[in-house]
Amino acid sequence: MKKLTADVVVIGVGTAGMGAFRNALLHTPNAYLIESHVFGTTCARVGCMPSKLLIAAAEARHHALHTDPFGVHLDKQSIQVNGAEVMQRVKSERDRFVGFVLEDVNAWDESRRIMGAAKFIDEHTIQIDDHTQIHAERIVIATGSRPVIAPEWQALGDKLIINDDVFSWDTLPESVAVFGPGVIGLELGQALSRLGVKVAIFGRGGALGGITDPVVLQQAIEIFDEELDLHLSSQTEVALNADGKVAVNWSQNGENGTFVADYLLAAIGRRPNVDNIGLENINIERDARGVPIANPLTMQTSIPHIFIAGDASNQLPLLHEASDQGKIAGDNAGKFPHITEGLRRSPIGVVFTNPQIASIGSRFAQLQQKHGDDFANKVAVGEVSFKNQGRSRVMLVNKGHLRVYADKQSGALLGAEMVGPAAEHLAHLLSWAHQMNMTVPQMLDMPFYHPVIEEGLRTALRDVAKALNS
Ligand SMILES: Cc1cc2nc3c(=O)[nH]c(=O)nc-3n(C[C@H](O)[C@H](O)[C@H](O)COP(=O)(O)OP(=O)(O)OC[C@H]3O[C@@H](n4cnc5c(N)ncnc54)[C@H](O)[C@@H]3O)c2cc1C
Ligand SMILES: NC(=O)c1ccc[n+]([C@@H]2O[C@H](COP(=O)([O-])OP(=O)(O)OC[C@H]3O[C@@H](n4cnc5c(N)ncnc54)[C@H](O)[C@@H]3O)[C@@H](O)[C@H]2O)c1
Disulphide bridges in this chain (predicted)? Predict the structure, then answer.
């Protein structure tokens, strides 16, 4: 067994781990990076980027099929999807993004990058497979997350797939049963459906796209139900047919049926990779899911020299959060025992469906939980439907609903949830205002051009301003 000593060891070379290593190096050259699988990051290889590439192809077909209302007529038969070409572009563009990540990784001294699965032996010792042990003064856990798999799906063998598998396809399949109408299931399910793949989406408890505001949720269900085969509160049984197809027997509200598909795509959530890194060997404080608890401003765990970042921390499993957390954790691990609080931004989340779903600041459910029966006295709610919003109608994207929450006493923007056109942009405007602690009257003093979708946001803000004055 090779034995090394280090000031800082970073476990996991994803976005968070790379940020942590980069920042630790600002304080000490004696740092190591450990990766058990491949370099390239989840985001670039099998996450954010390839999913957006697949969605872009789906949008191209969707637009081509929906030009008639503008008086522009295309021969629908001539609009063909070449699955092999779709996947070729997804993979080649994806590889380009991965290439940039690999350039960064390769710029680091090779002797500082160790391949293998890392495990805690004790609070200061990390073992990598059975070949290396490192005594580390400080450690950053940045091991990411993996999809949750229901035990009963194991019998499906290679017909059970996860997001990683989708982005290794050479062509598109005929049919996919998507389990989980959350962020991943809805993004990939809609994209595949718009590319002509037969898709059914199965969920639990009526949830959709992570929306917590009941009014926005109802609007979203109506919108997505128009084009997708949604079963949001279904009981399901899954079996592998003799012909190798997946059969999903479902029942919902007294109705039942069978959906037969080439694959079952598991998208029912992701779990942090902290169950297999030897945490049982160290006395670290963990939450109900077994994840080390960390201060979100310093990313320090209950063991002062151990930090955690990215999806592994289970705080906000999003790319920009992984990047910020990695920077904070690496900086603090590098300069420990002097640690400082890093920048945490206002929360923002975007689901890249069409229409998009987004939230900023506090979600409706969080405000409800905080205020309970006092919600109506504490929170003013304003809203807008995009059905008759001028610019949205012009462009025929007039579907959706936005709800804005403000503090009744101070008028400060608290949060928003929405489904609708340009939600990614509206969410950015709102989250910047939220981070600046702006009040609704201050936001209404900002410029709004004409005719733009942001005028819809102004309607919602005026609505909430009325509720503030009442
Ligand atoms: C399909 C999909 C689409 C997404 N789209 C978006 C999006 O549009 N926008 C957005 O903000 N977020 C998106 N996300 C989420 C985003 O990708 C993640 O939040 C982010 O990539 C997490 O980065 P990370 O560094 O924590 O983990 P990762 O990039 O997964 O890195 C963790 C690394 O740790 C390694 N590792 C694990 N265990 C060990 C061990 N014991 N020893 C050594 N190494 C180990 C892993 O192999 C991996 O390389 C998406 C995710 C998915 C799956
Ligand atoms: N655009 C983005 O920013 C983006 C895109 C993809 C992924 N992500 C990140 O990845 C994370 C994981 O995404 P995800 O979609 O896997 O999880 P999710 O938590 O967003 O959604 C999981 C869904 O599965 C449902 N579900 C749970 N158990 C089920 C079961 N047995 N059968 C059917 N449905 C079930 C849940 O009710 C929920 O609707 C997200 O929380 C997000 O942070 C972000």
Answer: 43-48
